[in-house]
TrEMBL record:
InterPro entries to which the protein is assigned, alphabetical: GlmU-like (IPR050065), Hexapep (IPR001451), Trimer_LpxA-like_sf (IPR011004)
Lineage: Bacteria, Pseudomonadati, Bacteroidota, Cytophagia, Cytophagales
Keyword Acyltransferase: yes
Record protein name field: LpxA family transferase
GO MF annotation: an example: transferase activity
Annotated Pfam families: Hexapep (PF00132), Hexapep_2 (PF14602)
Family according to the record: In the C-terminal section; belongs to the transferase hexapeptide repeat family.
Signal sequence annotation: none
Alphabetized UniProt keyword annotations: Acyltransferase, Transferase
Amino acid sequence: MNDNPVSLPHYLRDFTRLFPDFVHTSPWELCSTIQAVLTERIKHLSSDYHIHDDVAIHKSARIEDHVVLKGPLIVSEGCFLGAHAYLRGGVYLGERVSIGPGCEIKSSYVLPGSALAHFNFLGDSVVGSGVNLEAGSIVCNHFNERADKKIFVIVNGKKVDTGSIKFGALIGDDTRIGANAVLSPGTLLEPKSIVKRLELVEQDKNA
């Protein structure tokens, strides 16, 4: 979508290399179409991946016991998934991504070298490279408490309607998110952002 107000390459240094056909797509559209995107990509993966139905796992990935993997899903080279992690709704993990025990990820992209420590929830989001989410931090994807559940993002001081009721965050490269922090739906974080422990990020405060 050429009128997309959010430049993904600005936030994500590896995005153009990994998803060149989608550089003009909004992050919320990217998440809403992730199942179709990954289903097509799986068809063209190399023999370095074990592929069963719509789940593709690189042969070098390490996966502990009791992990639940629901496709379409791509787990890239050198990834680690800790016990009881739960991936669903379309998930892409770039190279050397680490997902700790008890994490849940839904309809999201996690780019190379990023880590979710443990007991994190990440919903309908795009996470850049080299990002770290400390234990218990949550990326919310839905306004359960609002009568009008439409999600807006703030771009250059202006509200932009995503047209969606399910979108979490766009998290720029090398961002650090502290333990038990919460990102509200529609959060956009510049590269190298720091979110303090227990902090609530709520960029659109209008109920």
